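fyi for ur records
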Amino acid sequence: MGRFQGLLRVGNEIKPYKRYFTAAEYTPFLNEGPSKAIKNLKLNPPCVYVTPVNEYLNMASVRTSLHIPADAPAWEMCNGTMNTNYIRYANGSIDVYVQLQGKYRVLIYSGDTDMAVPTYGTRDWISNLNYPVTKYWKQFFVDGQVGGYAEYYKAGSVEDFVFATIHGAGHMAPQWRPHPTYKVVFNFINNQTLY
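which gave:
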């Protein structure tokens, strides 16, 4: 056993396990190169039941409501062409939010157990935007329980940038914690604070 190994009793058997994985082990597809990664990419990952979402987002009425041009391709959960041509930038999406400043209200939400996009990383890049905080980090409640935390910022002339966490949710917050996620989105759409 290496120093990163542990032992786990399963019934009458002792099984070895790794205590944690390196970044390369957690996301091996990032180091495989585009051609091998695309071969391994399935259009609908087995961990996500996406059929209803595919059907909904490709309905003519929904596409019209979202102002999607008629000649735009159908929506897919994972798009091989996009993944092949994806270019990583040092600043990621931070530059997008700078361009949106003062033009649109923005909601960012994150499951607080998300290991792919950790809450602390999101809070860090938001703090780098240097928007003044108008309502400080505070919990909000759903059905008498903590639903998550939220903070409000003034990015333009109004309080128009919101960051909220969904307590107990991972990367797929609406799937794992639908009620708190619904409250965050509903309140944002209706311009209501969470606390």
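Residues 34-85 form one domain. thats all i got for now
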